[in-house]
Amino acid sequence: MTQEWILCPVCGGKTRDRLREDTILKNYPLYCPKCKQETLVAAKDLQITVIKEPDAKTQSR
User: 27, 51 in Cβ contact below 8 A?
Assistant: First the structure.
């Protein structure tokens, strides 16, 4: 079974999480201890995709 470390999509540093080839992630909050950023990711077949969150809209009255 192949395992790989998940790399931060912001800085490229190694995170504390690993993926196996049979792992499937949806809306996973990936935290990077190096740059201290949290990114929402999805993973399938050792391929990581960054999920872009829509910006919060302010409520107008």
Answer: yes
**Nearest alpha-carbon partner for 11 in 43, 40, 38, 42:** 38
Name the token pair of 3.
């395992």
- pLDDT, one tens digit for every residue, the chain (61 residues): 889 999 999 999 999 999 999 999 999 999 999 999 999 999 999 999 999 876 656 666 6
pTM (2 d.p.): 0.77
Residues 6+ apart with CB under 8 A from 1: 20, 21, 22
Measured distance CA(60)–CA(15) in Å, rounded: 39
Provide the 8-state DSSP code for 52: P
